Amino acid sequence: MNSSRLPPHTSNSSSPTSPAASPLERVEALYLELVAHYGDGDQRELRAAAKLLLVALARFRTHGGPDWARLLDEYVVLAKTDPARFERLLSSNRSEPHDGIWA
After folding, report:
1. Regarding predicted confidence, which is higher, 2 or 23?
2. How far is CA 64 from CA 27, 67, 71, 94, in A?
3. Residue spans with biased composition (Low complexity) (predicted)?
4. Distance (Å, rounded) from C-alpha 17 to C-alpha 62?
5. pTM
């Protein structure tokens, strides 16, 4: 995930960390905070994304029930095979208008 590829926040909130921001916007803000934490470090965007992925995988496994791996695989396959739909899925989880796709 490249921080330059993150879309601008268009919510009514003044900050992505405000209560009006969507959960996805708050996660993206955390990602940018992690990138900044790594400063000029090598592969800072990748390292920040890996930290978020590790936490997400742990939560998937803990809270996803017996089919957590299947759901995870569906998201990975979608990201690999249909990047446009994957981007729409992400966009639909922001506080801006969406096209009806929810994760």
Report:
1. 23
2. 19, 7, 8, 22
3. 7-22
4. 25
5. 0.68
